[in-house]
Amino acid sequence: MRNILASALLLAAASYATTANALDSSATPVVVTPLASKTTTASGQPITLPQKNLEVQVSAYQIAPGATLPVHKHPFPRYAYVEAGTLKVTNVEAGSSNTYKTGDFIVEMIGQWHQATNIGTDPVKLLVIDQIEQGAKNTILKQ
Based on CB atoms within 10 Å of each CB, which residue in 25, 37, 81, 141 is the most buried? Predict the structure, then answer.
């Protein structure tokens, strides 16, 4: 029984080594280009994660030219990668704005009222990642 178990482990290790070498092969190059490294939000807040069960949600957004999102806030971290277009995000509490273009990475403010407007002539396309407490929502609209 021990010999069978040892043989199975050796076979699994050999198979893993072959797979790992295939991924390492120069025939399948992998290029990693760092896009952003942030420790604070767009308004300078430190980024902290929820203390309870974490849920990661990934969404694609498309915002029409000239469209303005309603004033809202996020209780948990939200990150966005601008795939296309030009987006102006305004912190309505502070009166400050940031403009983001294709290729930019946004770390949205947490717990601060803000809104976004597509100020370009093309749709804004965003890849959005939320880190929330499991089952919670990450967008609160201002009444």
Answer: 81
State the Cα angle at 62 between 58 and 65, rounded to 5°.
155
pTM of the model: 0.75
Residue listed under structure tokens 């029984």: 1
Whole-angstrom distance, CA of residue 1 vs CA of residue 7: 10
- The pLDDT tens digits along the chain (143 residues) read 434 333 333 344 444 444 444 455 566 788 888 888 899 998 999 888 888 899 999 999 999 999 999 999 999 999 999 999 999 999 999 999 999 999 999 999 999 999 999 999 999 999 999 999 999 999 999 98
Q: Concatenated DSSP letters for 27-76?
A: TS----------SB-TTSPBP---SSSEEEEEEEEEE-TT-BPPSEE-SS
Under 8 Å between Cβ of 111 and 75:
yes
Of 73, 143, 59, the C-alpha closest to 112 is 73
